[in-house]
Amino acid sequence: MSVDANRSALAARDCLAEAAREAGRLALGFFRHGAATSARIESKAGGSPVTEADFAADALLKARLGAAFPEAGWLSEETADDPVRLARRTLLVVDPIDGTRAFVSGDPRWAVSVALVADGRPVAAVVHAPALGETYAAAAGAGAALDGASIAVSAPADPLRLKAAGPKATLQAMEARLGAVVEATPRVPSLAYRLCMVARGTVCFAVAAGDSHDWDVAAADLLLEEAGGRLVEASGERLTYNRSRVRRGPLLATSDALAPRLLEAFRAATGAKG
Fold it and tell me: What's the CATH number of domain 161-270, 3.40.190.80, 3.40.50.720, 3.50.50.60, 3.60.40.10?
């Protein structure tokens, strides 16, 4: 990456972080630790909840980031998809509240997830967890950080004991194939935050079931890459963005070093083809 491109990615990262924190403050006005949200709740098709806080944070982000990146397309969980974005070189990918069920119930493990994509890959990204007071940020070629301190994926202290996050059934199926004990963490409601746990070295790997979308993972994808890891499909290939299809199959997040060892077990556990 050129010096100018690196500076541009850093500036974009800082812009995303400022907007994400502002959206987080707005959402916190509706959040109640350990209690039901004060926000009005609706149900989407399929039964998943969405709140007035989701819509308000989405509108704020679209206004702030649309002004900052007028040439970029827009893809958000809470905005109707416009195929015009497919013709744009750059794209903003947003989930105003990733982990809405947690937000609704008073669980602090939800996040504002924002990424800027250029030519199919994220170049700046922020995952901000307002109720936890944590901000993960990355720029292409500049590393990943948590609250300004560099983070990196970790190697297991014992190769026969691997800490992981994801659906319990999938982790158990992988354990049987790996010949190692897989220590599953309690369920993490926000997928973006779950992937950040890999980037910061809290767990060795994480799995996402085949029902995630680009807005759930785009920001964490870059954080993983800049922390020395990767987010891949069963093929082992990194994800590309700004496609017409935004739903994803099963995904694996881990360090570059562990990926070859885990991929075969991941494919077998999820039934996904390489």
Answer: 3.40.190.80
Q: Over the stretch 141-200, which tens digit does the pLDDT of each residue have?
A: 999 999 999 999 999 989 999 999 999 999 999 999 999 999 999 999 999 999 999 999
Query: CA–CA separation, 127 vs 3, rounded Å?
Result: 25
Which residue type sits at 241? Answer: Y
pTM of the model: 0.95
Residue 148 burial (C-beta neighbours within 10 Å; 0-12, 13-18, 19+)? exposed
- Between strands 205-208 and 181-184, the pairing is unpaired
Residue 127 to residue 192: CA distance in whole angstroms: 7
pLDDT at 207 over 70: yes
pLDDT value at residue 4:
58
- In CATH, what class is 3-150? alpha beta
